[in-house]
Amino acid sequence: MKKCAACTRDSDDKEEFCLYHTRALGELKKHYGSWVNAYGGISWKDYLKRLDSMDETGQWIKEIIRLELKKEEDDEGAKREKK
Predict the structure, then answer these.
(1) Burial 37-58 (b: 16+ CB within 10 A, else e)
(2) Which end of the chain is more exposed for a tag (fewer CB within 10 A), N or C?
(3) pLDDT by residue (tens digit) across 46-66?
(4) Over the Cα atoms of the chain, what is R_g?
């Protein structure tokens, strides 16, 4: 067993996250399309930032959002370094 990338819970060897954070990421991805349609287009990063700022967003979702935003920042930094 390995540890979840978002918390200290155990995760399956094949999974990056525990059951709760895996479900949270699945829900984020599942509902992204609805937000794209509602806003006439919204980037993944803006979607995550909006959800993160909402009081109604749950803890597990927010933990995944923060990890996803960090990945986005790391990817952007790596792209700038290649130039």
Answers:
(1) eeeeebeeeebbeebeeeeebe
(2) C
(3) 999 999 999 999 999 999 999
(4) 14
In which residue are the tokens 């993944």 written?
Answer: 44
CA atoms within 13 A on the CB side of 74: 6
Closest CA to 71 of 5, 2, 11, 10: 5
pTM exceeds 0.85: no
Q: Which residues pair with 3 in a beta bridge?
A: 10
Residue 24's CB is within 10 A of a number of other CB atoms, namely: 22
Record the tokens describing residue 37, joined without a space. Answer: 């349609």
Beta strands in the chain (DSSP E): 2-3, 10-11
In a 3-state reduction of DSSP, which class is residue 69? helix
Residues 39 and 52: their CA atoms lie apart, in Å, by 17
Q: Is the dihedral of CA 45, 64, 23, 14 positive or negative?
A: positive
